[in-house]
Amino acid sequence: MNSTRPLVITDDQDLLDDLLRVAAAAGVEIDVAHAAAHARPFWTQAPLVVVGVDVADAVAATVPPPRQGVLLVTRGADDPAVWRRCVAVGATTVLTLPEAERQLVEEFAEASEPAARSGETVCVIGGRGGSGATVLATCLALIASRRKLRTLLIDADPLGGGIDVVLGKELAAGARWPDIAEREGRVSYAALQRALPTFGDLTVLSGHRGDPPAIPAEAMRAVLGAAHRGCDLIVVDLPRHLTPAAAEALSRAAVTLILVPSDVRGVLSAAQILPELHKHTQCIHTVTRPGPLAPDIVTRSLDTPHAGFLPDQRNLAQHLDRGTAPPLRPQTPLARFCNTFLTDRLIGEPR
């Protein structure tokens, strides 16, 4: 048995089938003991213990040591003796299936989480089409992962062609948004990470290049909730036309970066987006791109703080067209900007 998995104790095959199905919905693996004596060595080690009512008396007879995170699970009609058994095994509550399935999914998912990380969400959006928001989001995530920050890069633009292409990882095995679009409620980040393409400390949730379904706000909420518990940084690449899922990400963002080319059209385009952004978030900073206007004119026109100036990077387009990730040597403009931003926002020395 694995001490990091929830422990289920039951000899009722029908109940076990239900519990296995619930665990699968939570995206976690469980250990099973069919007898109370078999469970005894693992009683204090498992993050969660689920006791079937069929073996509750036998478990109580072993006099297990007191601990948190014990649940008594039953099926069907009320049993007048169930609460006595709950107290006898030291359970905190009784869950009756199938009514309590959603609660049990959340209990399994929470028990299987790694140590909470309280990840910070950064959203990135282009003030005008072609300003480079997707590339900046990708580079922020890459630099953060190089600094050993557990990072999730989320593609929130269903019409963007897939952010995995910018990474040069479009052939990597793993789930994309269409595979998890129906998820809602509490999701285990460990299970999410196992399902998605992961490269060291960087995990990627991308769109795909087929007929893209809309990303449900509920699915975005579930993913962001899991990532907040399991990551140091979540970077979300937003579409310029905000969807309900994009609005959900904005509502959780510690900061939103809007990339604005320093020209009249760039400023006017960004000014049209800002009122919609302000409906969902308040901390919006401008990143200026090259153009005839001075950065301070751009930021004064938009009435936003300046997060920095991002120069053009030589040969960037050629790298992207060849299907390779943006070059991020320490002295490249993208690497310098990302390292400075992350140093200001997060703990972690450049590597």
Automatic annotation (TrEMBL):
Transmembrane segments: none annotated. Residues 9-116 form the Rv3660c-like CheY-like N-terminal domain. Pfam families: Rv3660c_N (PF26563). InterPro entries: CheY-like_superfamily (IPR011006), P-loop_NTPase (IPR027417), ParA/MinD_ATPase (IPR050625), Rv3660c (IPR022521), Rv3660c_N (IPR059050). PANTHER family: SEPTUM SITE DETERMINING PROTEIN (PTHR43384:SF11), SEPTUM SITE-DETERMINING PROTEIN MIND HOMOLOG, CHLOROPLASTIC-RELATED (PTHR43384). This is Septum site-determining protein Ssd. It comes from Sphaerisporangium aureirubrum.
